[in-house]
Amino acid sequence: YPSAFFGTSLSSTLAAYATATPVLTGLSTPGCARATLADPGSHVFGPVVVAVGAALLNAYLRPVPATSEPL
Prior knowledge:
By secondary structure, this protein is of the alpha+beta class. Helices cover 24% and strands 15% of the residues.
């Protein structure tokens, strides 16, 4: 399963560091990044995908306009 949350301690690690917004990158956006965004473990967090850090940004993801405000 390509989600970064599946079978790992990622959720508890992010919680331990009080991470509210994990930033995702990846070579296979329709695979790993999409699976991580859709994984139930990610719903506690507000993950975002960095467009320039994703090799295959596609219809699964919508671009978020750049802003000076924190997410």
